[in-house]
Amino acid sequence: MRLSEIARKIEELKKSRRAVILAHNYQIPEVQDIADYVGDSLELAVKAIECEADVIIFAGVSFMAEMAAVLNPDKTVLHPEPDARCPLADFLPPSMVREYRSKYPKAPVVLYVNSLLESKICADYVVTSAAACRLVSKLEDEVVMFGPDKNLANYVEEVTGKEIIVLPPYGHCPVHEYALSIYYVNKALELYEREDPVLIVHPEVSKDVRRLASHVGSTSQMLKIIEEIDKKRTILIGTEEGLTYRARRLHNDRRIVPVNPRAVCIDMKKISLLSILRSLERLKYRVQIDPDKARKAREIIETSIEIMRR
Ligand code: SF4
Fold first, then answer.
1. Which residues make Cβ contacts (< 8 Å) with residue 163, sequence separation at least 6?
2. How far apart are CA 39 and CA 246, in angstroms?
3. Can you tell me which atom of ligand 1 is nearest the CA of 267?
4. By alpha-carbon position, which residue is closest to atom 2 of ligand 1?
5. Dist CA 24 CA 243 (whole Å)
6. Three-class DSSP category at 38
7. Can you tell me the distance from the alpha carbon of 227 to that of 250, in angstroms, rounded to the nearest whole number?
8. Closest listed residue to residue 128, CA positions, set 211, 217, 15, 22
9. Are 161 and 142 in contact, with CB atoms under 8 Å apart?
10. Which of 51, 223, 271, 291 is surrounded by the fewest CB atoms within 10 Å?
11. Whole-angstrom Cα distance, residue 182 to residue 171?
12. What angle do CA 204, 49, 304 make, to 5 degrees?
């Protein structure tokens, strides 16, 4: 079936099923194009709550679809590719959270949203990369446990000045750690040297890469930062390559290039137009969360939002 034919069928089914498609900024171009909303995990979670649809198709990795299901117990949340998982989340099983808790009983546990649901419900707070520093700075505690991303934990420590116990000390996103290492960043800076490049990066990159960057932020913050950069300068995007497509769509008068076009999250890329069509046709794969776990996760998320509002 041609892509245009698949897209047409998706549009028809979206109407008959009263469905919306939410797509993460790292999705492939045709998925971003057919989505009703494109954004980072927080923006999509908010859209999932606000939208009037009966069915939500979540084009992202499994923890994102789970979060949409947790926050929308009355809606049908479908994940077209249940195998699309985040390897960063797998670094921190719930048993490890419990182990750290018994080792450091006084320090609260703050988890990045890129974590397993079972681990989240063992935590005190859950944050996105955009909100991590804000939440930790508002806590009264001077020693805080943070996981599972060691680079984001290190960034939070730098910005807030608090002591961060990283759980585990080796958790990382393979895309940001290896495909966006200092080697590739230096190569890109050299390649675009004549264009006076501005490097903007995600906080999941390593500390040495962060040091070279003009701006550090979540994907949504990176998209906003672009507006403030001198139009004559080339913007180097230091995150998964999918954000470059989104950034170019939003800022088509700018020269925007990825640090490494091979910085690809293979899990994010598992979702295709065809898998979205099959998902809508068969109403599969439904994300079902144990009601007790969902309630506990909602409580933790609500407490986290409450702290950030203070
Ligand atoms: S880019 Fe990294 S953190 Fe994001 S979903 Fe892929 S593996 Fe996980």
1. 142, 143, 144, 157
2. 9
3. 6
4. 173
5. 9
6. strand
7. 10
8. 217
9. no
10. 291
11. 18
12. 50
Q: Which fold has domain 3-85+268-287?
A: Rossmann fold (3.40.50)
Q: Which atom of ligand 1 is nearest to the CA of 176?
A: 2
Cα–Cα distance measured from residue 34 to residue 283, given in angstroms and rounded to the nearest whole number = 18
User: In a 3-state reduction of DSSP, which class is residue 112?
Assistant: strand
Architecture of domain 175-258: 3-Layer(aba) Sandwich (3.40)
**CB of 132 closer than 6 A to ligand 1?**
no
Residue 142: how many CB atoms within 10 A of its CB? 11
Question: What is the pairing mode between strands 125-127 and 76-78?
Answer: unpaired
Classified as helix, coil or strand, 50 is helix
114 close to ligand 1 (CB < 6 Angstrom): yes
Residue 54 · residue 17 · CB < 8 Å: yes
pLDDT per residue rounded down to tens, the chain (310 residues): 898 999 999 999 999 999 999 999 999 999 999 999 999 988 898 899 899 999 999 999 999 999 999 999 999 999 999 999 999 999 999 999 999 999 999 999 999 999 999 999 999 999 999 899 999 999 999 999 999 999 999 999 999 999 999 999 999 999 999 999 999 999 999 999 999 999 999 999 999 999 999 999 999 999 999 999 999 999 999 999 999 999 999 999 999 999 999 999 999 999 999 999 999 999 999 999 999 999 999 999 989 888 877 7
92 lines ligand 1 (CB under 6 A): no
What tokens does 301 get?
């998320």
Pocket test for ligand 1, best of 267, 269, 270 (most atoms within 8 A of CB): 267
The structure tokens listed for 76 are: 């049908």
Tokens of 9: 């069928």
Q: What ranges do the domains of the chain cover?
A: 3-85+268-287, 89-172, 175-258
